[in-house]
Write a structure and sequence with these properties.
mainly alpha; 79% helix; 0% strand
């Protein structure tokens, strides 16, 4: 008989404690609406171990909706906790409590909408940040967000801007990380430009010739050919100048079809490069 009474007392005490905590949680959200943020924070902090999702949601409201506690990253952190632990928390409440807390915004659709709004706020904040690393972190944390494609575009644009100062290795990194970038054509042009600038440092004939040899598809091949022409022209050496036309078959190329001309030009570039390397 004593054992039964002990069990009944424990159950009654647990029920009383649960009711007290439920009431305290309601008072915490009431404190938020009344802007008593210190009281609200204390309530959510004390009850977090047993009411993880609901208290995390309460802290999200504190960090996102109040000037005194505003911290967007903290709001996002607690919002994710609220969603991740929602199902477990939901099962622990009575139907009456579920309805009560749902009316306060603690329900799955409302939590997901709140997260979307917070992510959008974070996106707007990063637009002014000019930080590649911050964009990378954003896309890593919010892969499925509505702003993901725009975030990718901002990140790639910033990356390209930085590569103008950091060199070829930088732009090659972007091509590896995002081979389907919206700026793929711009990336290709920048790679060509930086490769040419890093290869042809002193504008010497051997630099230009080897560039033509190893980059036959580059848009800067014609630039290299023109520079070689200018070198020959400045030397004012008739024999050397004639060799330019012999090596590049220019006269013959003019009489051929476009297809043959392209083939001959490629052969000419290789022949000329080999000639310079043998010198």
């Amino acid at each position: 008989m004593k054992g039964v009474l002990v069990v009944v007392c424990i159950i009654s005490l647990s029920f009383s404690t649960a009711n007290a905590q439920s009431k305290l949680l309601s008072n915490g959200f009431k404190a938020v609406s009344q802007k008593n943020y210190g009281i609200a924070f204390e309530v959510f902090h004390r009850l977090a171990p047993k009411h993880q999702s609901l208290c995390a949601y309460g802290k999200t409201l504190l960090y996102s909706d109040s000037k005194e506690f505003y911290a967007l990253d903290s709001a996002l952190f607690f919002m994710r906790i609220a969603i991740e632990n929602y199902e477990k928390g939901f099962q622990g409440y009575s139907n009456k409590e579920r309805i009560k807390f749902s009316a306060l915004g603690w329900n799955k659709p409302a939590l997901e909408r709140k997260l979307d709004n917070l992510v959008h706020m974070k996106f707007q904040e990063l637009v002014w940040a000019n930080s590649i690393q911050k964009w990378n972190n954003f896309m890593l944390q919010y892969k499925g967000c509505n702003e993901f494609s725009l975030a990718l575009r901002y990140r790639d644009s910033l990356w390209m801007d930085s590569c103008a100062h950091e060199g070829l290795f930088c732009i090659q990194g972007l091509e590896i990380v995002n081979p389907n970038s919206e700026f793929q054509q711009d990336i290709g042009r920048m790679m060509d430009k930086l490769a040419f600038e890093e290869w042809v440092v002193e504008n010497r004939e051997d630099e230009l010739a080897t560039y033509i040899l190893y980059h036959p598809e580059s848009q800067y091949v014609s630039v290299a050919e023109d520079e070689i022409y200018q070198i020959y022209l400045r030397e004012n050496d008739t024999t050397r100048f004639k060799s330019l036309f012999v090596l590049f078959h220019l006269a013959l190329a003019l009489q051929r079809s476009e297809e043959h001309t392209s083939e001959l030009q490629s052969l000419s570039r290789i022949s000329y490069a080999v000639f310079c390397l043998k010198k």
